[in-house]
TrEMBL record:
Name of the featured protein: Uncharacterized protein
Transmembrane segments: 52-76, 88-109, 145-162, 194-220, 240-262, 283-307, 319-344
Record's keyword terms, sorted: Membrane, Transmembrane, Transmembrane helix
Domain of life: Bacteria
Length: 374
């Protein structure tokens, strides 16, 4: 990785941290818009781990995290060769990133998932009749959702900047960042082998939830809901179960797209796609959305588990919803691993170092042979 690029990325990360530090200080001083608290969501328990934390304490946590970002950026910019302090500071940033994921919740994931469902149903059927476009976006994209999105953007910036820095510090290829010799798991053959396992897990995890929502839409009790509860909830919100089936459909589509991470049609456009058929798919077209979803899933799943535990303490616990949503924690990590494996297999050959260029991905070579035969 070119040192100038690594430096530019660190400066961008520092600017993001500085901006967040200013906002956190303002919240600590009592400015409106603090993004945590029970008043943002009527759920029976804290949606985010920070909802139960007083605003002054939560703001202090944000200030410390943003300050750590500024300190890390300043140190790395002035010490381009790495070293012990750089490793410690990098570990601190990664710990903050893990905290962002764990302390997350389902609201951003729900907003992203519900937006296309709402747009399609509203434009085609007019449902729900009492929900305008403006009201929907105002309800779905409140400040906590936008704040969570901003945190994930910052996390992505920091991860990219740290990778660029350590690639340069360790003497990797200045063009692509690869070391002189790849470890087995980072080679195309190795990534394909362990990526198959990760992809299989990521595909299976959402299927129980999807099946339960389809059964509910068909009028069959599932997911811990009795028939009486189904009738009552549908009377209070007509079309509720059909809307749930729409969300489940996106989960099913996500599972199918995840399967494409290890299939030939996930590397070349299928024959039924006009204009693009037969062309190679840009790997970033799969890596970026899959990476975003993998960051959102663990926090959303942990939030649902926390709410179920609160209900259990109140004597209202039903284990079936927990069994359906708990696999989402594993789903997020499995999807992240599958996405990494896909990138390691599909990333372009480097014209400078040529590392791994002599070890082609078997699926790509077979696809190329088939194309040549035609």
């Amino acid at each position: 990785m070119h040192p100038r690029r690594a430096r530019s990325l660190l400066i961008i990360a520092a600017l993001w941290s500085a901006g967040y530090l200013v906002v956190a200080v303002a919240w600590a001083a009592g400015a409106p818009g603090y993004p945590y608290g029970d008043h943002w969501d009527p759920a029976p328990g804290p949606v985010s781990l920070l909802d139960a934390v007083p605003a002054p304490t939560g703001s202090l946590i944000m200030i410390i995290a943003a300050g750590l970002g500024l300190l890390t950026a300043a140190w790395l910019l002035t010490h381009p060769r790495g070293g012990g302090p750089a490793r410690v500071l990098t570990g601190g940033i990664l710990a903050v990133g893990a905290g962002i994921i764990v302390a997350g919740d389902y609201r951003l994931l729900m907003a992203i998932g519900r937006t296309p469902v709402f747009l399609i149903t509203k434009l085609t059927t007019g449902f729900p009749p009492d929900m305008s476009f403006g009201l929907f976006f105002a309800e779905m994209y409140k400040l906590p959702v936008l704040h969570q999105l901003w945190l994930l953007v910052g996390l992505a910036i920091w991860l990219i900047a740290l990778r660029a820095y350590w690639t340069h510090a360790r003497g990797g290829c200045p063009a692509c960042g690869r070391p002189e010799r790849l470890r087995w798991w980072a080679t195309r053959r190795g990534a394909r082998r362990w990526g198959l396992v990760a992809t299989a897990v990521a595909v299976v995890c959402p299927l129980p939830y999807v099946a339960s929502r389809y059964l509910l839409a068909a009028g069959i009790p599932a997911g811990g809901f009795s028939r009486d509860e189904m009738v009552q909830m549908n009377a209070e919100a007509p079309g509720l179960w059909l809307f749930g089936a729409g969300l489940a459909t996106f989960g099913l589509i996500g599972a199918l797209l995840t399967l494409g991470l290890v299939q030939r049609w996930g590397e070349r456009w299928p024959f039924w796609v006009p204009v693009l058929r037969g062309r190679q798919i840009n790997p970033l077209a799969a890596v970026i959305p899959a990476g975003l979803v993998s960051l959102l899933l663990p926090g959303a799943a942990l939030m649902l588990v926390r709410i179920d535990l609160v209900r259990y303490a109140a004597g209202e616990f039903n284990i079936v919803p927990l069994l359906l949503t708990a696999p989402w924690v594993l789903w997020g990590f499995a999807l992240a691993a599958a996405t990494l494996a896909y990138w390691l297999r599909r990333r372009p050959d480097c014209p400078v170092c040529r590392v791994d260029a002599t070890v082609p991905d078997p699926s790509l070579s077979s696809a190329g042979s088939a194309a040549a035969a035609r």
